[in-house]
Design brief:
The structure is a homodimer.
Chain A: H1 14-24, E1 28-30, E2 37-39, H2 41-60, E3 64-65, E4 71-73, H3 74-77, H4 81-87, E5 92-97, E6 100-108, H5 113-123, E7 132-141, E8 155-165, H6 168-188, E9 195-198, E10 210-217, E11 223-233, H7 235-239, E12 243-245, E13 251-253, E14 255-262, H8 264-273, E15 290-294, H9 299-317, E16 329-331, H10 339-348, E17 353-357, H11 359-363, E18 366-371, E19 377-381, H12 385-410, E20 412-414, H13 419-427, E21 432-437, H14 441-451, E22 454-459, E23 481-486
């Protein structure tokens, strides 16, 4: 950060801006292994908060955690035809172990359906053993050729839920329930609004009956698929002989779901909320919510403002706020660095609230609170600083969601767009376009070919236009469903 | 569990008993991948509680979490001579990715010193960038030929701390501090007493100056190395050019430590506390602390005891105990399973406290609390059940540690043992033997060859005998240090 302090502006080069923010805010770094990144403590701290909240939500919906092997025998991957076709081209293969060539190569898991349903087949005999509701926090590897920090890396961290049910209805409800959990998390904690819906066949998970997805709009108007939930039907149950005795005494294959989100969410957070000064982290996910910067000119002042800064920290920590957990506060009292340089650094890192305290503030029993999201400053009395700070954090969290939603709506186009205009939009600023689709994969493929835009989802009812589109965006035939089109990460 | 309900007795075949407990208590299962296990929810729940507590202790001592790549370039492993010699024979090697042969094979990490210190070298310029105090929760792979559930598996879960310091003194203190954290955790939470000390050269970590270890005694009198902390000196700093500008303006290599514990701890928990009825889990690590079993004969009673069981659960949950967190309670009100069968199942799983409630108890406003550790029953009033249960859990936790410590001391031999007698002991019941050592690796090797016993540690002062041994157990020359000898896992 020493020489080249200024970030590239988002409007100049969004992609360069993104990489600079991730690196300079020390969220992650490139590693010596092609396509693999290091998640540094400031990035991992955000991931830990994400994990904690998601894990709580998974447990509240009845799931337990477990851990399955990293390695999958090659033969397992081949048992479900669509699945192997989808994943085989991007696998990492272990061919040697303990100095010897293996009889059967092992695949480093790109996802764990195969190994997990093979185990479920061992555990399930009767309907009494169902449902199985298990989640796994793990690393997975997909051999991507073009990688981007957080968004697409060879190895990434994620959670994968895998469930088995006695009926298709129950599995369908589960897949939908977890999509809802993801949405609640993304909106409630990440302040990142999403459009939910179902994927077309072209974009389905390899081996699923239906894939549901959360799609968020980044600041470059591209879509980020931020979480998916799959109704797997009986495809994997049949491939791995996952059968059970029904209550009536018959034998049936179980019904499965799987669902996952990954460290990609951190990339989504950056591209949803960052600005030209750096990152902006929603308070609920910020490892540090408030940074206190004491300001002094003379040595005499230095002692008393530093002492005051630490006293304020104690007072903030002892303040019992409404949401669980104490305020997360850091005092930056480093010597030899000017306050302006500290502000710059903490803004870059996206800490939601800065508290400045100088000798004159101290004399007036006040401090200055500065919001990272808006830059607005406010003087507050030291006697009510805990309450004021907590209120502001709450407000920042809400404001960030509202702002992001407004930005998305501002960059969404609905109703009667011509294909010519659509092409202009996709060549220009892009955005979310809601338009009709005839249901033919050929129209979908042609649009992708010509504009790089894809159907992100057939949106759920609440996201659909009041007036349903009548014709297909591409061919003009009757529309069978409204589709959300966008270029995507 | 249907047919073969009885466990093998520990006295008959400790090893068979161990496997049966792990499988039947559903802590883990064998997977279709040789040497890799599945950690099932009941086992993973214990690991989550271990992780949570250790993570808290790491953060309290100033560490942050981060994540480094799973894959390590083969050339990195070779940069530290001892390190590669120690780990190369047991690596899993990825030779193909994305359908192509790789130019340089990638090692699946057996431990992450090399990749982590390569990154630190990038991040550290000056003494101001030190210390770096980072921990990683991760999976690692070591290609073991003979595997045992939890104790030795190809893949296991662990944490690895990696720190960099400006002075050797500071690094030495860190290595010692983390050994202390491990000991506090193992004794305070696992109720598993350990002997701490330093390893001999033969047992040192490949690449370390000093390895410190926690050694616990299992119920078959063998030692389990349950956690290690390494003073790495400047070995890795030199291999990876991890240098910094000193305050005085010179350039020096940094000083490193690393330290780790793994899912092996779960095996240690089983072998420390299990009995012939199954597992016994210390309350602080038990995902369920209290299981409530309502008892009924008539349909009429069934309704009211089931209702009472759930009311008691609510009352237990609302009880604010002294240690943080609510009581963890489960009601087993399954129909069609007799109370005795339920008792059997929950004893096997090691739940610390069982609460029985029948119609007659209900009439008398009481319930029966049964301790898993001692089997002792006690009637308690329903008006004070929260306090009584919490007190008992506290007592169980303490009793388990005291019992384990007594067992260890009972099976430890100190002072003036002849080598002939030592061989008898090691051929018989085994145990911890404290005896003199001349410092010669040849004596150590000869004893290992003849008895399979090794020097577990040169124990720290508090574990040494009041009367220091004068001569070497093997050769009779002057002893330079008291050594703890035992057969080990």
């Amino acid at each position: 950060m020493a020489d080249d302090k200024k970030l590239t502006k988002r409007s100049e080069d969004f992609s360069a801006w993104y990489n600079e923010v991730v690196l300079k805010a020390e969220l992650a770094d490139y590693s010596p292994v092609r396509g693999c990144m290091v998640i540094r403590p400031r990035g991992y701290g955000i991931w830990e908060r994400m994990q904690h909240q998601l894990d709580t939500m998974f447990k509240e919906t009845g799931h337990e955690n477990a851990y399955f092997p990293l390695f999958i025998p090659e033969s397992f991957m081949k048992k479900e035809a669509e699945h192997v076709e989808g994943f085989a081209p991007e696998t990492a293969v272990v061919t040697h172990g303990g100095g010897k060539k293996l009889e059967e190569p092992l695949i480093v898991r790109p996802t764990s359906e195969t190994i997990i349903y093979a185990m479920y087949a061992k555990w399930v005999q009767s309907y009494r053993d169902l449902p199985i509701l298990i989640n796994q926090w793990a690393n997975v590897v997909r051999w991507e050729m073009r990688t981007r920090l957080f968004l697409r890396t060879l190895e990434f961290l994620w959670q994968e839920g895998h469930t088995a049910h006695a009926t298709h209805e129950e599995a369908g409800e589960e897949a939908r329930r977890m999509l809802g959990v993801y949405r609640d998390f993304m909106e409630g904690y990440m302040a990142m609004p999403v459009v939910t819906g179902v994927k077309t066949d072209a974009e389905r998970f390899a081996g699923a009956l239906q894939t549901y997805s959360c799609e968020a709009m980044m600041q470059d108007n591209k879509a980020l698929q931020s979480g998916t939930s799959h109704d797997l039907g009986q495809n994997f149950a049949k491939a791995f002989d996952l059968r059970f005795q029904t209550e009536a005494g018959g034998i049936e294959f179980a019904w499965n779901t799987s669902w996952g989100v990954s460290t990609r969410l951190i990339g989504g957070l950056v591209m949803t909320h960052g600005d030209d000064n750096g990152l902006r982290v929603p308070p609920l996910l910020a490892p540090i919510e408030i940074v206190i910067v004491p300001i002094w000119r003379s040595e005499e002042d230095k002692g008393r403002v530093k002492a005051a800064a630490h006293l304020i920290k104690e007072s903030l920590l002892s303040w019992e706020r409404r949401i669980p957990g104490r305020l997360r506060v850091h005092v930056d009292d480093r010597d030899g660095i000017k306050p302006g340089a500290k502000y710059f650094e903490w803004e870059l890192r996206g800490i939601p609230l800065r508290l400045e305290i100088g000798p004159r503030d101290l004399d007036q029993n006040q401090a200055i609170l500065v919001r990272r999201d808006t830059g607005v400053k406010r003087a507050v009395s030291l006697s009510s600083v805990g309450e004021d700070a907590a209120d502001l954090l709450h407000l920042i969290q809400e404001t960030m969601l509202i702002d992001a939603r407004e930005r998305r709506e501002h960059n969404s186009i609905r109703g009667g767009i011509t294909y010519a205009r659509f092409r202009e939009v996709m060549e220009g600023d892009g955005g979310f376009v809601y338009a009709g689709w005839c249901g033919d994969a050929k129209c979908e493929a042609a649009i992708k070919e010509e504009t790089k835009a894809t159907i992100r989802v057939l949106p759920d009812e609440e996201f659909r236009s009041a007036e349903p589109p009548k014709t297909c965006l591409k061919c003009g035939s009757a529309s069978i469903a409204e589709a959300l089109w966008a270029k995507a990460y």
